[in-house]
Backbone:
């Protein structure tokens, strides 16, 4: 009956600008827009909905309660990392390895925490 996550929403003071950031930086495509809301879809089919925010943004730390990051899978970690560096992305950590997986954390255009992950083996 339940199939899984259809999308995750991010509230932004400028949804169009953040949707364009995901398009330009992470190669998502803007696949639907209505009333100032934008859906962006990754190559693997995963989606984000970017909605207008209300009120000021609270400080975010890597391990605060709640949803903490979006993980972006990729085939070639070194090429992806170099591409993000060339595009001027703000990195929150240096690349590192954990259990054979390669990771690096960075901020999206609004400061949300995102990370690249190249897994040695897919999760079961």
Residues:
């Amino acid at each position: 009956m339940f199939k899984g996550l259809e999308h995750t929403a991010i509230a932004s003071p400028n949804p169009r600008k953040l949707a364009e950031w995901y398009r330009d930086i992470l190669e998502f495509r803007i696949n639907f827009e209505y009333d100032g809301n934008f859906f962006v879809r990754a190559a693997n089919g995963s989606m984000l909905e970017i909605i207008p925010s209300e009120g000021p943004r609270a400080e975010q730390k890597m391990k605060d309660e709640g949803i903490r990051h979006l993980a972006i899978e990729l085939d070639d970690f070194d090429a992806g990392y170099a591409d993000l560096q060339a595009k001027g992305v703000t990195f929150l950590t240096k690349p590192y390895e954990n259990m054979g997986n390669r990771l690096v954390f960075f901020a999206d255009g609004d400061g949300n925490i995102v990370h690249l992950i190249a897994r040695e083996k897919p999760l079961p």
Notes: The domain at 69-124 is CATH 3.10.180.10 (2,3-Dihydroxybiphenyl 1,2-Dioxygenase; domain 1). The first strand starts at residue 8 and ends at 12.
